[in-house]
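> call design_seq(struct)
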């Protein structure tokens, strides 16, 4: 016999409450950022952070109508000293064929497409990503992500 549990999830800024069953939550693909709700509550954030940003290895990215597709090299940036750094915050959504900024999405910190609907402008992505990485809202979201991760680890160890 399956138990039916309900949990209240805050869905928008005016604190409207929506009752969502556990079955509904499990219908979302927690590994696909494109299926997540626009506004996330703390419990869902904690669940997401337990798993971390997910990248599907060996995925063949589909081409758009212009023949362009997401390139794996966008997951990395080359510094001026030629060092290559992983953009761990960049996550691809298979269901939407877009990329998202993981911390900006989970904290709903901006209204830019990279945090809300995702970006699939593959031609200009190599210019968009460095700009986003330097943006104040992104930097603040990265700090929030680090702080929340530390707090969650401390509470797990208690």
């Amino acid at each position: 016999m399956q138990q039916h549990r309900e949990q209240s999830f805050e869905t928008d800024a005016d604190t409207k409450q929506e009752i969502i069953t556990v079955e509904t939550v499990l219908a979302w693909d927690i590994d696909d950022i494109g299926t997540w709700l626009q506004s996330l509550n703390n419990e869902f954030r904690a669940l997401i952070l337990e798993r971390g940003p997910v990248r599907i290895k060996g995925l063949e990215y589909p081409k758009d109508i212009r023949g362009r597709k997401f390139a794996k090299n966008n997951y990395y940036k080359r510094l001026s000293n030629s060092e290559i750094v992983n953009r761990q915050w960049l996550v691809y959504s298979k269901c939407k064929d877009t990329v998202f900024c993981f911390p900006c999405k989970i904290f709903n910190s901006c209204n830019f497409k990279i945090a809300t609907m995702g970006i699939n402008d593959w031609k200009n992505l190599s210019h968009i990503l460095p700009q986003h990485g330097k943006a104040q809202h992104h930097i603040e979201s990265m700090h929030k992500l680090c702080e929340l991760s530390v707090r969650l680890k401390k509470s797990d160890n208690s």
